[in-house]
Specification:
This protein has helices spanning 40-50, 142-151, 163-171, 194-203, 231-243, 259-269, 287-299, 310-319; strands at residues 6-9, 12-15, 18-29, 53-55, 60-65, 68-73, 79-84, 93-102, 108-118, 124-128, 183-190, 210-214, 248-254, 274-280, 303-307. It has 324 residues and is α/β, with parallel strands linked by helices.
Length: 324
C-alpha cells in the first residue's frame, strides 16, 4: 500500500438494478482528525486542512460488492462514480463496498471502505437541503457563512430547534425502527466538508443518510465555499428520483437561495412521485415569491408548507398523515 495515496468512499444508495457509489482518490491529503475544540485557531486550522489536498486524476479504481468487481477511472479532480447492476437481489439495508486504487501494473496503491443503502420499496424517501434548512449557516451572506464555518466545529454548529425531532419522526413514518425511511442530504457545500457534515448530523441526532455534495474546492477557493451554481443541485435531486421510480418523495429546503424554484420545477415534471414540499422561511422579503411557487406545487396536487419554525412543519406533517 502507498501511504501517500488515500481513498474516500461516500455513502451510496440504490436498489438491485441501479446502485451508485461516489468517492475521491487523493495523492496527498492533510490529516483531518477533528479535535472538537472551542479554540478559534484550532477550528480554523482544521477547516483549512479540509481544503489542502492533491487529487489523483485518471487513475484506475476497482469496486468490490459481494462477489462483483466493477472498474472505473477517476476524473480530473480525483472524483469517481460507480453505477452498476447487482447480479443478485440485494436485501434492504446498509451494505459494505470496498474501493481499491490500482496502478498500471495492477498493484493496489490504497483501499477504502464505504456503504450503500438499499431502502425498502414501500417507504417514503426524504430529500433535504442542509444549509439554512437543517443547519444555521447564513448562506446568503458569504461573510456570515464563513464565520459559522470557521468559528464552529461539528459539535458546536447549531441546527434549527425541533428539526431533528421532525426528521426522526419522518424516518419512522409508516415504517418501524428496523426499516427507517431513507434520507438524502443534498447541499451546495463541497465534498471537502463531507466528514464535517456527517459528524454534525450524527452529533445533532439527525437520521443517517446519503450526502450529495458539490465539486471539491482547493484552499484558494475557500471564500467561494457553498456558492457553486444550483443547476448541479437540480441534477443531483433528479438522479435520486430516477433511481427510485416507485418511491414517494418529500422535499425540504429554504428560501435563502434557489430551493423553491428547484423543487417546483421537479414537481412540474414528477407530480405523482412527490408527496409534499417544505420550505423554511429564512428570507421574509422572499415570502411572497415563495408562496407563488408553492401555489404552483399545490396546483399539481402536491402538499406544500412554508414554515417559520419546525413546530409548524411538524403540525403540517401530522395534518396530512405523514406522521402520527
Amino acid at each position: 500500500m502507498n501511504k501517500s495515496v488515500s481513498v474516500k468512499v461516500y455513502h451510496g444508495y440504490g436498489h438491485t438494478h441501479n446502485l451508485v457509489v461516489y468517492g475521491h482518490v487523493f495523492k496527498r491529503k492533510a490529516k483531518t482528525k477533528q479535535v472538537y475544540s472551542n479554540n478559534l485557531f484550532v477550528n480554523i486550522v482544521h477547516l483549512l486542512k479540509l481544503f489542502i489536498l492533491k487529487p489523483y486524476a485518471f487513475v484506475e479504481v476497482r469496486l468490490q460488492f459481494f462477489d462483483q468487481v466493477v472498474y472505473n477511472k477517476t476524473e480530473g479532480d480525483g472524483f469517481f462514480k460507480f453505477e452498476w447492476k447487482a447480479r443478485h437481489d440485494v436485501p434492504a439495508g446498509w451494505h459494505f463496498v470496498k474501493v481499491e486504487v490500482v496502478d498500471k501494473d495492477g498493484t493496489v496503491l490504497s483501499a477504502g471502505e464505504g456503504k450503500v443503502y438499499v431502502p425498502h420499496i414501500t417507504q417514503y424517501a426524504f430529500i433535504s437541503d442542509v444549509d439554512d434548512t437543517v443547519m444555521i449557516s447564513h448562506s446568503a451572506t458569504i461573510g456570515r457563512r464563513l464565520r459559522e464555518l470557521f468559528i464552529k466545529n461539528p459539535h458546536t454548529r447549531k441546527t434549527f430547534p425541533d428539526a431533528a425531532t421532525h426528521y426522526q419522526q419522518l424516518a419512522l413514518s409508516h415504517t418501524d425502527a428496523n426499516q427507517p425511511n431513507p434520507f438524502f442530504y443534498v447541499s451546495s457545500s463541497e465534498w471537502n466538508l463531507y466528514d464535517y457534515l456527517v459528524e454534525t448530523f450524527r452529533f445533532n441526532k439527525l437520521p443517517n443518510g446519503a450526502f450529495l455534495l458539490n465539486t471539491l474546492k482547493r484552499w484558494k477557493d475557500l471564500v467561494r465555499t457553498g456558492k457553486t451554481g444550483h443547476e448541479g443541485k437540480l441534477l443531483r435531486v433528479m438522479r435520486i428520483l430516477d433511481a427510485f421510480p416507485n418511491q414517494k418523495f418529500v422535499f425540504f429546503g429554504d428560501n435563502s437561495q434557489q430551493d423553491p424554484t428547484i423543487y417546483s420545477t421537479i414537481v412540474e415534471k414528477y407530480p405523482k412521485n412527490i408527496e409534499a414540499v417544505y420550505i423554511r422561511n429564512i428570507r421574509p422579503e422572499k415570502e411572497l415569491e415563495t408562496k407563488q411557487l408553492l401555489k404552483k406545487v399545490e396546483d399539481k396536487g402536491v402538499s406544500a408548507c412554508l414554515f417559520n419554525n419546525s413546530e409548524e412543519a411538524i403540525e403540517h406533517s401530522k395534518s396530512i398523515g405523514l406522521i402520527r
